[in-house]
Automatic annotation (TrEMBL):
<keyword id="KW-0949">S-adenosyl-L-methionine</keyword>
<keyword id="KW-0238">DNA-binding</keyword>
<dbReference type="InterPro" id="IPR029063">
    <property type="entry name" value="SAM-dependent_MTases_sf"/>
</dbReference>
<comment type="similarity">
    <text>Belongs to the N(4)/N(6)-methyltransferase family. N(4) subfamily.</text>
</comment>
<dbReference type="GO" id="GO:0032259">
    <property type="term" value="P:methylation"/>
</dbReference>
<keyword id="KW-0489">Methyltransferase</keyword>
<keyword id="KW-0808">Transferase</keyword>
<dbReference type="InterPro" id="IPR001091">
    <property type="entry name" value="RM_Methyltransferase"/>
</dbReference>
<feature type="compositionally biased region" description="Basic and acidic residues">
    <location>
        <begin position="339"/>
        <end position="352"/>
    </location>
</feature>
<dbReference type="Pfam" id="PF01555">
    <property type="entry name" value="N6_N4_Mtase"/>
</dbReference>
<feature type="region of interest" description="Disordered">
    <location>
        <begin position="331"/>
        <end position="352"/>
    </location>
</feature>
<dbReference type="GO" id="GO:0009307">
    <property type="term" value="P:DNA restriction-modification system"/>
</dbReference>
<feature type="domain" description="DNA methylase N-4/N-6">
    <location>
        <begin position="23"/>
        <end position="269"/>
    </location>
</feature>
<dbReference type="GO" id="GO:0015667">
    <property type="term" value="F:site-specific DNA-methyltransferase (cytosine-N4-specific) activity"/>
</dbReference>
<keyword id="KW-0680">Restriction system</keyword>
<dbReference type="GO" id="GO:0003677">
    <property type="term" value="F:DNA binding"/>
</dbReference>
<dbReference type="InterPro" id="IPR017985">
    <property type="entry name" value="MeTrfase_CN4_CS"/>
</dbReference>
Amino acid sequence: METTHRVVVGDARELSQVADESVELVVTSPPYPMIEMWDELFVELDPAIEDALESGDGRTAFEAMHAQLDRVWDELERVLVDGGIACINVGDATRSVDDSFRVYPNHARVLDAFESRGFDPLPDILWRKPANSAAKFMGSGMIPPNAYVTLEHEYVLIFRKGGDSRSFEPGADRRYEAAYFWEERNRWFSDVWTEVRGELQALDGGHEDLRERSAAYPLEIPYRLCCMYSAYGDTVLDPFWGTGTTSLAAICAGRNSIGYELEPAFREVFADRVADAPALSRSIGRRRLERHREFVADRREGGKEPSYDAVHYETPVVTKMEREIRFREVTGVEELEDGDGHRAEHDPLSLE
C-alpha cells in the first residue's frame, strides 16, 4: 500500500491545487482569532484589523479575523466529498481590549460559519489543555466577584458535508481493516478527552524563530481523528499545516495527506519529523494491540469472555466488526521528485 503526502506553500483561502470533492477528511487547527500571538498574521491578511484593535473595538476585530477564516471554510466546502468530515480544533480567547476583559467565543463563531455553509454539526469533543501557570484564576484572585475561570480546554468541532454519510462497497477491506477496537471506540468517541495533553512542537535545527507560529497540538488528536473519520487510502487535508502534525498522523494511519502552509521553512521541520515515521507507526500499532490485550485480560477477570477472534492477530475481540482490524506499518518514506511532498510505503504490521 502506498500513500502520498503533499505540502503546498500557499494561502489556504484559495486551495487552487486541490480538486473539487477530492478530500474525505479535514483535520486542522487554525490560528485562533483574538489570541495575541496571531494578531500579526491576521493584520497581514486585513490591515483593518489593526485599526479595530488600536481603537479598542474588539468585536469588530474578532469578526474581521473570522471573515478571513470564512474564506478557508468556503474552500473546504468545495474540496470535501459529499459525506466528508471536517474536524476543526479551536479554542476560545480571553482578552482585554480597551480595558474591557471578556471571552471571544471562537468555537461558536466557527460553528455558525459551517452551519451557514450547509454542513451538519456532529457531536463535538472537548480536550483538556492545562495552562502552563500554576495559578488557576484570573482577575481579583480570592476576592469576589471579579475573578474569572481559567480556560483549560479546547474544542474539536466536527461537521459533515451534506445530509448523508459516505457509502462504501459491501465488505470493503480498506474500511474493515481500518476498524478500531471496541474499547477504543468507547474512549475515542467520548465527548471529553482528559488524557490528551498539549505539547510543544519540536523546532530544533535552527528553526526556533518559528516557535511562535507553531501550536501545542499533540499527534494523538489528528491520529485519533484520522482513525475515527476516514478509511485506509482516504485523503486528509490540513489547510493550516504548521509543523505537519496532521500529515504525520495520516502517514502513521495509512491515509494520504495534503497540507497548505504560508511559511516555507516549516517543510524543513517536517523533513526531520517524517524520518521517524516508520518507527513511530510501528510503535503506535504495537501499543494499540498491547492495550487491547490488557483490556481483554481485565474483561476476562471480570467474567466476560470476548465473543470473536481477530483474523490477523492472536487476540479475541468483542464485536464482529473488529475481526478484520489490521494495522499498517510504514516501511519506507521517500521525497517526491518535485520536492513538495513524500511517498510512504505501508505493509501490514505483523504482531505476535
